[in-house]
Design a protein that fits this description.
- This protein is an alpha/beta fold and 569 residues long.
- The protein has 4 domains: 1-57, 2-Layer Sandwich (Alpha-Beta Plaits); 59-330, no CATH class; 415-503, PAS domain (Beta-Lactamase), CATH 3.30.450; 520-569.
- It is built from 20 helices and 16 strands.
- It has a 5-stranded antiparallel sheet with strand order 13-12-16-15-14. Strands 6-5-8-9 form a 4-stranded parallel sheet, with helices on both faces. A 3-stranded parallel sheet has the order 7-11-10, with helices on one face.
- Helix 11 (260-271) links the parallel strand 10 and strand 11.
- Helix 6 (137-146) packs across helix 11 (260-271) and helix 14 (350-359) crosses helix 15 (379-387).
- The relative contact order is 0.09.
C-alpha cells in the first residue's frame, strides 16, 4: 500500500478529501476514496479534512522497535521543528528517546549545515538562472510528478535528513540504523527513496509511542542532543533556510513561498522565466514544517509554534567540531537526481467530454457551474477525471441535487396521496395537486391558508408540541364529508409538518354498504329460522295428536285380544 490511504469501512463519500487534494490524486470508485500514489505528493491535506477519521498512515513504528531489539547502533535524527511541540521541556526529548532505546540522538540540523552550503554555492553561480531549494519532499514530489519542466530549477542536493543520515552512517558505520523523526508525512516517501534513512516516524507517532510506554515526562532529566548545530535551528520556519546562509550579500534576490497551493500557482511563472536571478526558498506546508501533517493535533496555533522555534534557536547548543565535520563532509556525496515522474492522464476527445457532461446534466455552457464541489476546478476537468476512472459522474453535487429534486417533484406532483406541508404557524406552505383537487382549492389560494380551513388543527398542534410524528390515524373530515387515513410527519431540520393522507371515503362507504348487507342477511336468516321453527312446531303438534289417537286405538285392540284369549281358557 501507499504511505497514506483510507479505510473502506469509514469512508462515507463526502468528497472532502477530493476537494482538499491540490493535485487531484484521489480516485473515487464504487463510492470509495483511494489515493493514487503516482499523483500523490504526500502533503497530507486529505487526512486533515477527513471528518470520519478514515485515514490510514503507514507506520514504521514496529520496524523501529525491531531495530531497537537487535544488536547494532540505532540513531535518532530529530527534525528541529520538535521545539514547536513543547512550550517548556523540549530539552527532555533526548532523554525520552534514549529511554525508548535509541543509542544516539542527534538533531537533523547537523546535516542542514552542509546542505545550506550547497544552496549558498548555487546562489553565487554566474548568470541569471532561478534556483529553488530542494529540502521539502512534498515540493520535490509536486515538481517531479506534476511539473517536471521545473526540475532544472531545483538545486540537485539531498535534503538535510538524507544528508544527516549519510553523515551518521559514515561516522558510526553503514550498518547503523537511522530513524528520522519529524513533522512531515512526505518524509515517509523520502525514506523509501533514500538509502541513508532506514525508517521515518512522525512526531504524532512518537508522542503516541511515549504515551504507550508510560514515560513520565515530568520526571525526565534534561539532556543535550549528542550533536546539533545552532545556526540551522530556524530551518523549520519560513525564511529559516536562507537565513542560515553565512554570506547574506548574495548576488541573487531571495523569496519565500509556503503552501502547496501557492507553490502550484508559482510553477507556470517559474517555467516562463519570471523569476530570473532568484533563489526561491520553497515549502509545501503553510508556515513551513511547523504545520506539517505529522504534527500532533494539539490545538497549538502555528504562530505560537513559530515563536517556540525562534526561542529555541536563540539558546546555546553543542556544535559538531569543525575538523570532524570537514572529514565527514569530504567523503559524502550530496548530489541528488530528480526525475520526470509525471503520470499523464488520457485526454478524451471533445465528443467524449461532451457525452460525459451531458450525462450529468451539463448540456450547455450555462450548465457548467464550475463550482468545485466535486474537487475539480471545472466541470470539464471533472469529465476528464471520469474518463480516466478517477471520478464518478454522481460526484456532481448540483446534478445530484437537481436529480433528487426532480424525482421528488415527480413524486409530489404525480402521487395519488394527499400531501400538504404546514409550517409552525399552522399555515399551508405547499400542497400537491391531489390534495388541491381533494379540497377543491385553486392554486392561488392554497398557500399560506390556515390548516384549520381544511381540517381540525388539533392533531397538528399535538405534533408541533411533542415534535413527534403521528402515523396512520383515521379521521373524518366533516366539512367535505370524507374519511382519510392521515400521517403527520414532523421534520426537525425544516421545522415543518408534512401531512400525508389517503382518501378512504369510497372504501368506508363500501364497507358500510357491505356491513348493512350483512345485517340484512342476518335479519333474513333469522326470519327464515323463525318460520322454520313455527313449521316445525306445527308439524310436531299434528304428529303429536295422530300418535295419541293411534296409541289409544292400538291399546284398545290389544285389550280386546287379551280378553278373547282369556275367555278361551
Amino acid at each position: 500500500m501507499w504511505i497514506i490511504d483510507f479505510f473502506k469501512s469509514n469512508c462515507k463519500n463526502c468528497y472532502a478529501c477530493v476537494r482538499a487534494c491540490p493535485v487531484n490524486a484521489i480516485q473515487v470508485q464504487a463510492e470509495q476514496a483511494k489515493i493514487v500514489k503516482e499523483r500523490c505528493i504526500g502533503c497530507g491535506k486529505c487526512l486533515k479534512v477527513c471528518p470520519k477519521n478514515a485515514k490510514h498512515v503507514q507506520s514504521e513504528l514496529e520496524k523501529v522497535k525491531t531495530y531497537l531489539k537487535q544488536e547494532g547502533k540505532v540513531v535518532a535524527s530529530v527534525a528541529p521543528s520538535f521545539a514547536a511541540l513543547f512550550d517548556k521541556g523540549s530539552e527532555k526529548l533526548p532523554a525520552a528517546l534514549k529511554k525508548l532505546g535509541f543509542d544516539v540522538v542527534e538533531e537533523t540540523v547537523v546535516g542542514a549545515e552542509l546542505v545550506t552550503e550547497v544552496y549558498e554555492a548555487y546562489s553565487k553561480m554566474p548568470g541569471d538562472q532561478c534556483y529553488m531549494t530542494s529540502c521539502c519532499p512534498t515540493v520535490n514530489a509536486l515538481i517531479q510528478k506534476h511539473y517536471p519542466e521545473v526540475i532544472p530549477f531545483l538545486i540537485p542536493v539531498v535534503s538535510p535528513a538524507a544528508c544527516h543520515g549519510k553523515m551518521i552512517k559514515r561516522h558510526y558505520g553503514k550498518e547503523t540504523k537511522v530513524v528520522f523523526i519529524g513533522p512531515c508525512l512526505s518524509k515517509k516517501i523520502e525514506g523509501i527513496e533514500e538509502e541513508s534513512i532506514d525508517a521515518v516516524l512522525t512526531f504524532e507517532e512518537l508522542l503516541e509511542w511515549i504515551k504507550e510506554e508510560k514515560i513520565d515526562w515530568e520526571n525526565l532529566q534534561t539532556m543535550p542532543f549528542d550533536a546539533t548545530e545552532e545556526r540551522q535551528r530556524r530551518y523549520p520556519i519560513v525564511g529559516g533556510m536562507t537565513h542560515t546562509i553565512k554570506d547574506q550579500s548574495l548576488p541573487r534576490k531571495i523569496i519565500q513561498i509556503d503552501g502547496v497551493d501557492e507553490c502550484i500557482d508559482m510553477m507556470p511563472h517559474i517555467m516562463k522565466g519570471a523569476f530570473k536571478n532568484t533563489l526561491i526558498e520553497i515549502h509545501g506546508c503553510r508556515q513551513s514544517c511547523i504545520s506539517g501533517a505529522g504534527m500532533p493535533q494539539d490545538g497549538v496555533n502555528i504562530y505560537e509554534r513559530r515563536e517556540r522555534i525562534k526561542k529555541y534557536a536563540e539558546e546555546q547548543s553543542i556544535e559538531v567540531p569543525p575538523e570532524e565535520e570537514k572529514t565527514i563532509t569530504d567523503s559524502i556525496n550530496l548530489h541528488k537526481e530528480f526525475h520526470n515522474l509525471k503520470h499523464q492522464l488520457k485526454i478524451p476527445s471533445e465528443e467524449e467530454i461532451e457525452s460525459i457532461l451531458n450525462s450529468i446534466g451539463k448540456e450547455t455552457k450555462l450548465d457548467e457551474l464550475n463550482c468545485g464541489s466535486c474537487g475539480y476546478k471545472t466541470c470539464r476537468d471533472k469529465a476528464i477525471a471520469v474518463f480516466n476512472d478517477m471520478a464518478e459522474p454522481n460526484m456532481c453535487l448540483p446534478f445530484m441535487r437537481q436529480k433528487a429534486e426532480t424525482l421528488t417533484n415527480i413524486i409530489f406532483e404525480a402521487t395519488p396521496n394527499l400531501i400538504i406541508m404546514v409550517n409552525e404557524a399552522l399555515e399551508v406552505i405547499e400542497i400537491n395537486p391531489a390534495a388541491r383537487k381533494f379540497f377543491d382549492l385553486s392554486k392561488d389560494i392554497s398557500n399560506r391558508l390556515p390548516v384549520s380551513a381544511l381540517m381540525d388543527e388539533e392533531s397538528f398542534k399535538e405534533v408541533r408540541r411533542m415534535k413527534k410524528s403521528i402515523l396512520n390515524q383515521k379521521i373524518f373530515l366533516h366539512g367535505i364529508d370524507a374519511t382519510v387515513v392521515q400521517s403527520i410527519i414532523w421534520s426537525d431540520y425544516h421545522a415543518i409538518m408534512v401531512w400525508i393522507a389517503n382518501d378512504v371515503t369510497y372504501d368506508e362507504k363500501k364497507n358500510k354498504q357491505l356491513q348493512n348487507m350483512k345485517i340484512e342477511a342476518i335479519d333474513m336468516a333469522q326470519q327464515v329460522i323463525n318460520k322454520q321453527m313455527t313449521v316445525a312446531q306445527e308439524i310436531a303438534s299434528l304428529l303429536g295428536e295422530t300418535t295419541a289417537e293411534t296409541k289409544v286405538t292400538l291399546t284398545k285392540l290389544k285389550q280386546l285380544i287379551q280378553e278373547e284369549e282369556a275367555m278361551k281358557r
